Structure formats: structure tokens, C-alpha cells
Amino acid sequence: MLLKADEAAKRLGVTAQQLRTMARSGSIPSVRCGTRYMFSEALIARLLARRSDSAVCLWP
């Protein structure tokens, strides 16, 4: 399932604008659907799991 930027950002604890900036820079994978950035729900879950297992921040 794909999540809109605002939904994914809420799960990651960042703003939608920050998430779109990360997507544009390539620091987080995304798919463009027209003008929208979409994010894999499974990928977001893996990032959260990895972040909770590590003291290192995975993104700015």
C-alpha cells in the first residue's frame, strides 16, 4: 500500500514538507504520482523498526 506524504510523515514524526525534501534528495525512496510523492507503507514500517533498534538517526 502507498501512503501520501502527510500520512507517512505523521508515522515518521516529521513534517510532510521535510519528507518531500528527503524524497527529492533521494534519502528516502518514493514514487511520484503526478505531483504527489507516495511512500511504501512497508518501507516506512521497516524504517521505524530500524530506528527503534538503533540509536543512530536514519534521516535528518
Could you describe the 3D structure shown?
- This protein is of the alpha+beta class and 60 residues long.
- The protein has one domain.
- Helices cover 52% and strands 18% of the residues.
- The protein has 3 helices and 3 strands; from the N terminus they run E-H-H-E-E-H.
- A 3-stranded antiparallel sheet has the order 1-3-2.
- A hairpin with a 2-residue loop joins strand 2 and strand 3.
- Helix 1 crosses helix 2.
- It is globular, with a radius of gyration of 11 Å.
- The termini are far apart.
- The model has no long low-confidence stretch (mean pLDDT 89).
Brief description of this entry?
The protein is α+β, with helices and mostly antiparallel strands and 60 residues long.
The overall average pLDDT, rounded, is 89
DSSP strand content:
15-25%
The total count of strands amounts to 3
Number of domains: 1
Taking the alpha carbons of the first and last residues, their distance comes to: 25 Å
Shape: globular
Taking strands numbered 1, 2, ... along the chain, how are they ordered across the largest sheet? 1-3-2
SSE run:
EHHEEH
The percentage helix is: 40-55%
Extract low-pLDDT stretches: none
Structural class: alpha+beta
Number of helices: 3
